Amino acid sequence: MKQQRVLSFLIVLVLLGTRALSADTLQVCSPSGKICVQVWMGKLLTYQVRQHGQIILEPSFIDLEPVNKPAMSFKAAIKSSAVAKVEEEIISPVPEKRKIIPDIYNKLTLVFKQPYKIEFRAYDDGVAYRISTAFKDSIKIKNEVAEFRFPGTPSAYFPEIPVKAGEDAFKTSFEDLYSFKKIAEFPATSIAYTPVLIVPGATSKIAITESDLEDYPGMFLTGTGSAALKGIFAGYPVKETIAEALYSQVRVAEHGDFIALTRGNRTFPWRVLMISELDKDLPSNDLVYRLGSPSRVADVSWINPGNITDEWIIDVNLFNVPFKSGRNTASYKYYIDFAQRFGFDRIMMDAGWSDNNDLFKVNPDINMDTLVAYARAKGVKIAMWTLAMTLDRQLDSALQQFNRWGIDFIMTDFIDRDDQKSVNFHYRIAKACAEHKIMIMFHGTYPPKGFNRTYPNAVAREAVLGSEYNIWSEKVSPDHDVLLPYTRMLAGSLDYEPGALNNANKKSFRMIEGIVLSQGTRAHQAAMPVIFDSPMQFFSGNPSQGWLEPKYMELIGGIPTTWDETRVLDGKAGEFIITARRKGTNWYIGGMTGWAPRDLSVKLDFLDDGEYKTTLCKDGVNADHYAADYILENSGVKRNETLGLHLAPGGGFLLKLEKH
Q1: Does residue 11 carry a pLDDT above 60?
Q2: Is-catalytic flag, 570?
Q3: Measured between alpha carbons, how far is 50 from 187 in angstroms, rounded to an integer?
Q4: Going by C-beta distance under 8 Å and a sequence separation of 6 or more, which residues neighbour residue 479?
């Protein structure tokens, strides 16, 4: 559902904050006038961005370079230009942040004498542009020029990948730590996938990413030896090979000297700058979703994500049970019982329920007919993991089998690419799943980047250094956790898989398979389902331990995964965050800090009048030494009250407010 009011007029009119600055400079400003984009034609098409009159993006080049066809900049002349004010209202069928999304911006459209067009959009929370072509036949794209030049000596958070001789740097699971360094020190021998967060110092933070990525490779960034970054793209995979392993996958054996082979009449991905004067306004920014193509799923009534259990991280290491735990019928029945008791919608049958290379070779220790009947009787759904290469090969027959079993959600894993062929794989799989009324989550792949608007049945993606890394590394720290909402999450929902019930402080953390510890406190883990966007929220803790803590599990199992409203109350990138979300008349507030302990004040001035019953999970008095120490308190509050909370090192809190 959408309401739209568009007024178009010539660029020469001094209206809507859009005017001609000189003979060759055009400008479009955001609805409030605080952000302006200036565009002119020099050697290449050039643009710059100002905020409150101050340059925050210096003149940067844009170009598209097809093979055997003129580039956009070649003898470029602007045929016409126009601006429009757009006011839309998007109703999200799977609301990660909010159900009703205002989409209000001013746009500048330039039409060239050659078959090119470019559109700039100025929002109050960012800027975006994209190129369109109108060639009659298909085109081969050699390169796209996308530059981002910044004033001064800014720094940035980069998920950095070194480019090594003989290795494919574009092969990545998109699961890396963010390094912080000056942009001028980011080497041309490394690349970074987006989002990248620019920290200019005293001015607004700027996140660079993209949206509406389709039939085209994803954009990485690389250094230039100055305060500038430029886009770089994986070459088209002209030769592929099968990498045989426990989790086999299709890999690129040879990249071509071009990046895409595509239709000539099309729009290309949006290049996006998310701009925020306050850190706390970044995590609630849904500009990337707004720029995604509208839904291609006509009937969305069957799309019902929720919370789900998973056994992979703990390796089905159950205890206090009368059966041998493992990937077998008895263990999955146990998970179904746990889900029913504590309000989880589904259980995941992760890798090992079948042969990885054949979804019809079910593990002989598992009786699917028995499990399907048992889950149906308990009112719990079953979800299933697949290997991407196998799902692609067996797609039609596998989806039919999932339908027969009543499976409405699957995961597919080990893609590790975002070249053009890989991007097209995501569209093909999501479309097929939608036709079978199956939701899907992609693992081992790039962030959604607006795809979740186009295919709302693609309810989340991994693309994050999350809980599973606690099995084999020390990378997943509270400092990392409190950076994710300001970086990775800006490109769409993420599957972190919180819920660890074995918690450790910095000194006590160890890597132990089967008894996996998390860094930070229990209350830190409890806050994650409220802070991290994910319509399909996984609980990765051990249910055998969860049975011993029923009050805690009732709180966790009852957290919604889609929201009517989201407000980030306070926060600073890499330090802490406080997020409040509303579902109906109830609110959930989650807070996390990094390794630094912190005292926080939570002002409840956003509540409606009346009384609220509260359930608070917070760090216990000994949480700085014993990270699993937490306190559950029940009380009541009213609007405008202020709560004072102490967070231990790596700590957090979860507050549920139920309207009387």
Answers
A1: no
A2: no
A3: 27
A4: 574, 594, 595
pLDDT in tens, 121-137: 999 999 999 999 999 99
Q: Which of 63, 168, 468, 497 is catalytic?
A: 468
Which CATH number does the domain 5-291 belong to among 2.40.10.270, 3.40.50.720, 3.40.50.1240, 2.70.98.10? 2.70.98.10
User: Is residue 468 annotated as a catalytic residue, yes or no?
Assistant: yes
The superfamily in CATH containing domain 307-480+488-501+509-554 is: Aldolase class I (3.20.20.70)
Please tell me which residue in 103, 160, 210, 413 is annotated as part of the active site: 413
Q: Which residues contact 546 (CB under 8 A, 6 or more apart)?
A: 338, 342, 501, 552, 553
Q: Are 637 and 530 in contact (CB under 8 A)?
A: no
- How do residues 47-102 score in pLDDT, each as one tens digit? 999 999 999 999 999 999 999 999 998 887 889 999 999 999 999 999 999 999 99
Q: Which long-range contacts (CB under 8 A, 24 or more apart) does 599-602 make?
A: 599/644, 599/645, 599/646, 599/647, 600/570, 600/576, 600/644, 600/645, 600/646, 600/647, 601/642, 601/643, 601/644, 601/645, 602/569, 602/578, 602/642, 602/643, 602/644, 602/645, 602/655
> According to CATH, where is 3.20.20.70 located in the chain?
307-480+488-501+509-554
Residues carrying CATH 2.70.98.10, the chain: 5-291
pTM higher than 0.85: yes
Q: What angle, rounded to 10 degrees, do the helices at 395-405 and 420-435 form?
A: 40
